[in-house]
Amino acid sequence: MSITSELRADGIRVVTMAHPPVNALPVQGWYDVAAALDEAAGDLDTKVVVLRAEGRGFNAGVDIKEMQHSTGFDALIGANKGCYAAFKAVYECAVPVIAAVNGFCVGGGVGLVGNADCVVASDDAYFGVPEVNQGALGAATHMARLVPQHMMRTLYFTARTIKATELVQFGSVLEVVPRDQLDDAALQVAAEIAAKDTRVIRAAKEALNGIDPIDVNKSYRFEQGFTFELNLAGVSDELRDAFAGTDKGKK
């Protein structure tokens, strides 16, 4: 697993997620993402962040196998707290965060992207919240920032995905480019922001968060409560076992 952070000479910090094969992050991975964004927020030389990923897709959510191969609820609690920390760090980062999305962006990936300030995607990118298939809830808060309310509910209940090209019409994705041009497209937007007075941009980020009609942190935490209920009822284990192809308690 690797979460790297590189500050370029122009003030653009590039945070990269790389956890083969599908960037389904284990508990520590979510905390590492949060730490990278918190570092960016506290570094006055950082003017803007580009959050990207290596590999087949941007992010496949939490590592379900880690959860199923552990006893008790430690992994579940860790994943919930880790995701909360990572999503919060993106939203509250003192500088704008540009998400450069390639391939699949599902579950926790939508949590990261939904809390970003700008989204650029490759032409093979798609988004979804398949939580209901695994007996969990969450990231509806963030999907609602990408699509209108009725579309969000339809995607949530059906676990369907939506292409990045379709999100352009809603204004939630700035542009869709060929995959080999994704990094350049994200860096171009980042360069426009980095060219501004960072004192003004940091004030603007705080101001925009302050007038946001939804408290994304509390909203997501509310969703997580239902995930705990489903786990205590045994529903989540049953569905995760079927998804992961494991027997309950298998190491």
UniProtKB/TrEMBL annotation:
Keywords, comma-separated and alphabetical: Lipid metabolism, Lyase
Pfam families: ECH_1 (PF00378)
Alphabetized InterPro entries for the sequence: ClpP/crotonase-like_dom_sf, Enoyl-CoA_hydra/iso
GO MF entry, a single one: enoyl-CoA hydratase activity
Keyword Lyase among UniProt keywords: yes
EC number: 4.2.1.17
GO biological process, alphabetically ordered: fatty acid beta-oxidation
NCBIfam families: PRK07938.1
Protein name from the UniProt record: Enoyl-CoA hydratase
Organism from which the protein derives: Nocardioides soli
